[in-house]
Design brief:
0% strand, 192 residues, single chain, mainly alpha, 8 helices, globular
Amino acid sequence: MLKLITVMMAAAVVNNCVLSQTYGICPFLGVSKKSDQALGMSVAVIFVMLMSTAVTWPIQTYVLDALNLGYMQTIVFILVIAALVQLVEIVLKKYIPALHASLGVYLPLITTNCAVLGVTVDNIKNGLGFGEAMFNALGCGLGFMLAMLMFAGVRSRIEDADPPKCFRGLPITLIAASIVALSFLGFAGLFS
């Protein structure tokens, strides 16, 4: 159990998919303006990461590898992720319409969120067992949430600041994102 918790913590903090591996930058920059939207997107991404890992790991292990169809991995994984995102969208639209409306176009973009695909592929590439893969996906999702909520706080402070005219908008956002990402380098080597 300690090993699984270590896998999860390493994925969330040391190997943060957004800040260390630069997966999922589109929603990180697009939905991090407000903390409630960032939280909603993060919960949806965690759900999709967990479900896609739970579905893709057995498909890779018992179907693709067994039939020597490993080259089909990316296509199959994208199809699974797209189906799961559609499921999340239907559930949010029916039960939480305000969150569905606030996420807008970014909810369907989870399908193309490279963080979700990257986690599922990395689980296979790193030879993780099913339990380890699930804890790694949970850790990556929590790391995504941590990055989103932290950056939402940073962006709210940027809104109150008065940067020079040439830095307003996207430039100051990218500079702030790089500083937040650099701060996570301090966790390198914390978990092995």
